[in-house]
Amino acid sequence: MSKEALLKLEDKELSFPIIEGTENEKAIDLRTLRAQTGYITFDEGFGNTGSCQSEITFINGEKGILRYRGYPIEQIAEKSTFIDSAHLIIYGELPTEEQRTRFLVDLIKTCNIDTRMVRQFEAFPPSAHPMSILTSMMGSLSSYYPELSTNDRVLDLENFDRSAASAISKVMTVAAMSHRIANGLPINYPKKDLTYAENFLHLMFSSPNDEYVAPKEVSEALDLILLLHADHEQNCSTSTVRMVGSSGANLFASITAGVCALWGPLHGGANMGVIKMLEAIHAEGDDGSRFIEEAKSGNSGKRLMGFGHRVYKNFDPRAKIIGQACERLLDALGTKDPCLDIARNLEQAALNDEYFIKRNLYPNVDFYSGIMMRAIGIPLDMFTVMFAIGRMPGWVANWHEVASQPKGKINRPRQVFQGPNERDLPADYNQR
Ligand code: CMC
Hints:
By secondary structure, the chain is mainly alpha-helical.
């Protein structure tokens, strides 16, 4: 098969090389297109654009495949943990016993935050959204830990192990502190004998005179939620991290931008959107069928939140795993949540509806994660924060991949300008 693509443009015929990925994905290498022709490609939303070559995560949206560094998500979800997956995603391999111990020690060493930073929480108005607080606090890490965020690529890479551990451990501390302080509760600090998920639950729910000990099924469910969110290839927030990192910006600056990108309702904000949608359907006494009709009409401005994905066109493997885990968790806790019944109705109705079938719309990871988080006791406005905690290893790994390319280029797309042509200021215009 020819390893080039031919392009006929005006009176020229040009050839461009084909790049092939390890999973036989093919891309036309258009890096010289503009230099050769003066043309650029136009691909609004980047649905057909490969922005990088990456070794971290593989997705095949047609077949519903997701792999971290080659390992299928189903196997990882069954046998691994969030922290081992984080190590895998960041360093390329599951940790040995010794590497795991070192990684856990690094996480514990870096999990506290500067006490002056703790005082910063008090400056936020009580109504501040936890995602807004998280963006500010993650951005502040560069102020309090300047040695880990120099914007000198060589130094930032030398300190990478510590800054990576700091990002993963401090995001958990900051997230829980924002909840405690906003609710007038005393703050807790992580403990070295707890797992990552157990620690987060302790930070959120322990009080000085009543320590919260997470039931196994709860901490395991949370670990699974985090693990399933740990990386997802070139999604909006990860692409943002890479974009910012490509300018030479340090890890903390780049992941802060990722948190901002995640906040939107079409991305990480969808997990809150799902619960709000399910609650509204419940409050209206609908079993979901009225809502489905509205979501299909296109005029209502409503979408079936937790459905659809830019890449998955068959099923989202994370949704399959999380749907089953949700059922297990609610059973184990003896929780009866009417939202779960509505979600099941919506899923069945949508999967059998021509509108959703034609557009390849299936449940995504957010469809059931909110019901699980609610059963665990996590407040609704923190759902997207939980996504950010889970996605941290992916952001860190992608930043590292960008930062360690010796000939990396700054990301700088072009545009097709559709504004006014050159014109002169009005003759009678004199502002000064
Ligand atoms: N409900 C109803 N219609 C939908 C939905 C939905 N959830 N998603 C897409 N469509 C329709 C859309 O109206 C369009 O119809 P038409 O062709 O008639 O104009 C068609 O499907 C294609 O939609 P699109 O917006 O062009 O597709 P996209 O690939 O740009 O968007 C998406 C993907 C995830 C943003 C979108 O499916 C969506 O808004 N879903 C709901 C929000 C959501 O659950 N987001 C979480 C995504 S998974 C976690 C993450 O990675 O953040």
